[in-house]
């Protein structure tokens, strides 16, 4: 009897001994330490991305097509910190106590965020491609309104695409859970292959091709600017300044894209490789993928002076002053 009682304490739902999952094998100290560390990362991710959302939304100078794309990326990163990370912490370090409905909602929202983030990265690459490779037509082709429409379509398509992907789970909630306290969604091999092609292989190929083209053109433009460094006319000076700012933006966003790919690729590579590898590295690649949402704002802080200035204005509540949206932040 004592042994059976001890065994039941290891179960997520002791009242259902035959159907309950076992609790993850973590000691109390390990669980507390892990929860504290991951909760701090989640809080940091949420706070940093919230600053970007407030800054780009509030300051009129930041209302540019490129920043609209960064705003969309910050929204997805914010949702990762606010919703996905806490739920993932619960799922990985303890039992799932929130039921099948919230399990489905968590997975569905996570899929939307992932797909939307990939879509926005493709849009950022396309934005830099037009800005560097066709600078004369960039202001007319890439407008703030078009950027907003593209972002909205990206999120809408992501939501519709993923509801088709998990429609079976929606009809029968928890159909793939082997025991109480588990939260998983499994798609069949054909659907999984199609999803991998559409949300991983094709976007990564497009991003790499666009940025390789941007890199080649940026190098040639940099050489051209150095060869014309002695030009002293105002027109050439303004043109050179514009080119430099676009090239700098391309480099910064290039870092953003490269870091995204470094965090994104292992997640899908492990998923494609098979179940054995997935079991061994699933926790590492999942948290690496989510940690990208923490890194992105740090990249902004490192490369964008306006981000550092916005942090100061937001923390000191100067954005609450009348007319603060017109502040010169660039």
From TrEMBL:
GO molecular function terms listed in the Swiss-Prot or TrEMBL record: trace-amine receptor activity
Concerning PROSITE patterns, the annotation shows:
G_PROTEIN_RECEP_F1_1, G_PROTEIN_RECEP_F1_2
* Record carries keyword Transmembrane: yes
**What name does UniProt use for this protein?**
G-protein coupled receptors family 1 profile domain-containing protein
CC terms in the record's Gene Ontology section? plasma membrane
| The keyword Transcription is assigned to this record | no
Q: How does it sit in the membrane?
A: Multi-pass membrane protein
Which InterPro entries does the record match to this protein?
GPCR_Rhodpsn, GPCR_Rhodpsn_7TM, TAAR
Against SMART domains, the record matches this protein to:
7TM_GPCR_Srsx
Q: Which superkingdom does the taxonomy of this entry point to?
A: Eukaryota
Which family, according to the similarity comment?
Answer: Belongs to the G-protein coupled receptor 1 family.
User: Transmembrane residues, as ranges?
Assistant: 34-56, 68-85, 105-126, 147-166, 197-219, 253-273, 285-307
Q: Which UniProt keywords apply?
A: Cell membrane, G-protein coupled receptor, Membrane, Receptor, Transducer, Transmembrane, Transmembrane helix
Show where the G-protein coupled receptors family 1 profile domain sits.
48-300
- What biological processes does GO assign it? G protein-coupled receptor signaling pathway
Where does the record say this protein resides?
Cell membrane
């Amino acid at each position: 009897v004592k042994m059976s009682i001890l065994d039941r304490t290891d179960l997520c739902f002791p009242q259902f001994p035959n159907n309950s999952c076992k609790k993850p094998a973590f000691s109390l100290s390990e669980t507390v330490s892990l929860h504290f560390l991951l909760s701090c990362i989640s809080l940091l991710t949420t706070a940093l991305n919230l600053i970007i959302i407030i800054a780009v939304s509030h300051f009129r100078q930041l209302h540019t097509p490129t920043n609209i794309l960064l705003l969309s990326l910050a929204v997805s990163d914010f949702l990762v910190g606010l919703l996905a990370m806490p739920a993932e912490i619960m799922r990985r370090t303890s039992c799932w106590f929130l039921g099948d409905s919230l399990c489905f909602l968590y997975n569905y929202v996570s899929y939307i965020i992932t797909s939307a983030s990939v879509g926005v990265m493709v849009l950022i690459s396309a934005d830099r491609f037009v800005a560097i490779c066709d600078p004369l037509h960039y202001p007319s082709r890439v407008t703030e309104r078009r950027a907003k429409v593209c972002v909205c379509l990206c999120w809408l398509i992501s939501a519709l695409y993923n509801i088709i992907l998990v429609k079976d789970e929606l009809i029968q909630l928890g159909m793939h859970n082997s025991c109480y306290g588990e939260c998983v969604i499994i798609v069949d091999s054909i659907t999984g292959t199609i999803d991998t092609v559409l949300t991983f292989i094709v976007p990564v190929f497009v991003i790499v091709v666009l940025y390789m083209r941007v890199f080649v053109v940026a190098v040639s433009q940099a050489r051209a600017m150095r060869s014309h460094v002695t030009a002293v006319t105002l027109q050439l000076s303004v043109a050179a300044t514009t080119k430099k700012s676009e090239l700098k933006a391309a480099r910064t966003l290039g870092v953003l894209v490269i870091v995204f790919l470094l965090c994104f690729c292992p997640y899908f590579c492990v998923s494609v490789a098979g179940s054995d590898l997935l079991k061994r590295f699933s926790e590492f690649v999942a948290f690496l993928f989510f940690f990208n949402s923490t890194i992105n704002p740090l990249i902004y802080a490192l490369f964008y002076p306006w981000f550092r200035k916005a942090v100061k204005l937001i923390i000191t509540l100067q954005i609450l002053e009348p007319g603060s949206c017109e502040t010169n932040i660039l």
